[in-house]
Amino acid sequence: MSGSAPAGRVLLKNGYFYVNTTDFASGHIAKLMDEWYRERAAHYFAKVFAECWEKFKKNGFSKPVIKIMTMKKRWGSLSPNGTLTLNPALIKTPKACIEYVVMHELCHLQHHHHGPEFYQLLDRSLPDWMKRKHKLEMALA
């Protein structure tokens, strides 16, 4: 494997990260950690999305496709073509916060703005959304 970076492995055990690699450059370790979080995010976000979709699908919309992408200023977004993009950093927050972001974005299927109708739908879909939003804002403050 000439030209490729040394492999590595990340384990989380008893609340501690263990990084097994022969390349101790901070960039390589950061890449391993990023990959670890992305893998966990992909699996967990799919599970949370499925739970949220069960509650939301009665509204008659096509099920969005999930994409994970680092975004500097957003937790999530919904594209006009129905792609729900989630920031992998969201995996570091409580499940209630992830559910809030997913439900917020699902509400954009019906209302593509943040007007009163959007918030009425969000209130019906996730009555404690304000509490969850506040928790999200505090989680990474």
Automatic annotation (TrEMBL):
<dbReference type="Pfam" id="PF01863">
    <property type="entry name" value="YgjP-like"/>
</dbReference>
<dbReference type="InterPro" id="IPR002725">
    <property type="entry name" value="YgjP-like_metallopeptidase"/>
</dbReference>
<dbReference type="InterPro" id="IPR053136">
    <property type="entry name" value="UTP_pyrophosphatase-like"/>
</dbReference>
<feature type="domain" description="YgjP-like metallopeptidase">
    <location>
        <begin position="27"/>
        <end position="137"/>
    </location>
</feature>
<protein>
    <recommendedName>
        <fullName>YgjP-like metallopeptidase domain-containing protein</fullName>
    </recommendedName>
</protein>
